[in-house]
Give the backbone structure.
Amino acid sequence: MKEIEDIIRSFKAAQKTQKKSALAAVVHVEGSSYRRPGARMLVTDDGQLTGAISGGCLEGDALRKALLAIAQQQNKLVTYDTTDDEDNALGIQLGCNGIVHILFEPINPVQPDHPIALLEKASLQKESSVLVTIFSLDNPSGEQAGTCLMVSADEKYGSMKNNIAAATIENDIKVVFENGASLIKIYPVTQQETITCFIELINP
């Protein structure tokens, strides 16, 4: 939770000086990695980093990807594959044998339920809450819904924008609350397409 609080604090400080920012989050890991899903890092357009998404080896490249997301004002899903020779040749060197999927979300403060706002609402809850982040591993270069919903026992902010899997995801949110553990699950959208949802339990 301290990482989330630091990110919220840094975002508010950036807002005061009119800096643009993006949130980078580990949303899925295959194999081993320094950080697990839910690790986050805030990047401002002047290169300031708050939080961490790796042991320090991804942050340089993540900074460039975050600045691109800010410039284009578009969510981006980036995969770092340590089992791939090209990623190792780039010097990323995760120090482990795994595949890490990072979601980059530019923050538009005009939108009432942007990812940082949802994080802040979750951090203010006195009981556990859930954050929902939707992305597509099938189509990483396509549109990524991103962090779209915060649910607590008494409140709900954001929406899944009439996603075809919304009803099933809502049932799995209840499962996360009941089991007290986050969940990553793949949902079919069409016969050829799926989406992946990170249903993250945020403890008070």
